[in-house]
Amino acid sequence: MFPKTTLASLALSLFAVEGAYVGARSGILIPFESPGTSTRDNGIFDYRQAIVEAHYTRNKHLDNLITFDCNARRITSDECADVELPSAPFFKRQGLLLANPNDSQYPAVISIGSDSQNFTVIFDTGSSDLWVSNANGCDDCKGYQAYNSANSSSSHAVDGTFKIQYGGGATASGPIFTDTVDLGGWLVVNQTFAAVTQRTGFPYINGVLGMAYPSLSKLGAPPFIQNLLAQKFIPTDEFAFKFSPPNPHTLFGAINPGLFNGSIEYRTVNTSLGYWQLGGGSLLSGSDVVFSGLETIFDTGTDFIYGPADQVKAFYDHIAGSQLYDGTYGLYTIPCSAIPQVAFQWDGGAAWKVTQTSFNLGETQSGSGQCIGAIAGSDFGFGNNVWFVGRRFLINIYSIFSFANNLIGFATLKDPPP
């Protein structure tokens, strides 16, 4: 249970008597590596990145619906094995591999195994499992970091097979293992994860560390942060995100009051679907409430804010000069000179703003004067009024997620994005 290494990114440590909490006093701080977005460095919208992410996000949540029903025994085990999502007219995957597999994400580094195999993964509140690529028998894993169980003396195979099956032929599947996972120098033993030998249709992800509730787990294992708590590395199973510069990071087991002003607005999570989900949401454009009574699911694995296609269309109808840019992916343009002031609000609380810079995904092409808005229309199968709120919202706030109390908290950053 003691730290393997001392890292600059690790908060001040406290070691106590046997059986007591032995983790980091101020939590375990993990910095993001070269975070990316759907906007290129030259300010132009990266269409290719956006559609790859749209495909992944849509399919992830469609598959989560099936996983939840399987875990809740709403459908039989045979039906779970046979179910297949309908194909959808998303991008042709060939030719869309990205130079950096995590270009449009906020990746972080973990190590797995006694030999410290490094993996750049996404910390994803929209899923619950840890998976990486497999070094053995994976023709699709070329160019990705891959786990070699033979090189780790602490690796143990687990019965069963992990499988994510998406529409349009996208799959990730492979054997299940337990092994030691190193997070910022702290070694979590017997962590269950998958090392996939097939990863068709996942063109930009090295791996995923899921942070949603266990009811979304295909592995039937506790999410990683709950093992951090059980092995007494953190005092509480909460975590916080700061996506804005400088120093974007995740903090496990604590919050940092030095990064925000005022009090934290906490809201109770609806855990019925296994997500970090809040009801009573409203979407504002300026001072106008465009929609109310929204169910909002917080997904750190996506850059966008996704809503049902009809509601997103109605939202952009409120914005002068907006136009449909791509009907397949629900993308809209807005005049770059008139970016709207957008905000979310829950149960009459504070209006948490999405800055104009955050809402603007970039110009469609140099000199066009038309920019892509961060709200996109896509139907994930959850029905009306369900929105998926990604990093374009979260970058504007300090956010806290608490398993123990089933709460999400919002606070005002001391150094907000422009």
Mean model confidence by pLDDT: 85
Going across the biggest sheet, name each strand in turn.
19-18-13-14-23-15-22
Tertiary shape: globular
- Strand proportion, as a percent range, falls in 35-45%
> In the CATH hierarchy, what is the superfamily of the largest domain?
Acid Proteases
Q: In the CATH classification, which architecture of the largest domain applies?
A: Beta Barrel
Terminal-residue CA separation: 42 Å
**Rg over C-alpha atoms, rounded to the nearest angstrom:** 21 Å
SS content category = mainly beta
**Major beta-sheet overview:** 7 strands, mixed
CATH class of the largest domain: Mainly Beta
Domain Peptidase A1: 106-411
Organism: Meripilus lineatus
Active site: 124, 299
Protein name: Peptidase A1 domain-containing protein
Q: Could you please describe the fold and organization of this structure?
A:
- The protein has 418 residues and is mainly β.
- The chain has two domains: 35-233, Beta Barrel (Cathepsin D, subunit A, domain 1); 257-413, Acid Proteases (Cathepsin D, subunit A, domain 1, Beta Barrel).
- It has six helices and 25 strands.
- The protein has helices spanning 47-71, 77-82, 224-230, 309-317, 356-359, 391-394, and strands at 28-31, 107-112, 117-124, 130-134, 146-147, 156-165, 171-183, 186-196, 207-210, 238-242, 249-252, 260-268, 277-285, 288-298, 305-307, 323-326, 331-335, 342-346, 352-354, 360-363, 370-373, 375-377, 386-389, 397-402, 407-413.
- The protein has a seven-stranded mixed β-sheet with strand order 19-18-13-14-23-15-22. A six-stranded antiparallel β-sheet has the order 1-11-10-24-25-12, with no helix packed on it. Strands 2-3-9-4-8-7 form a six-stranded mixed barrel.
- A hairpin with a 4-residue loop joins strand 2 (107-112) and strand 3 (117-124).
- The chain is globular and about 60 Å long.
- 49% of the residues are buried.
- Residues 1-19 and 82-104 have low confidence and may be disordered.
- Belongs to the peptidase A1 family.
- Residues 106-411 form the Peptidase A1 domain.
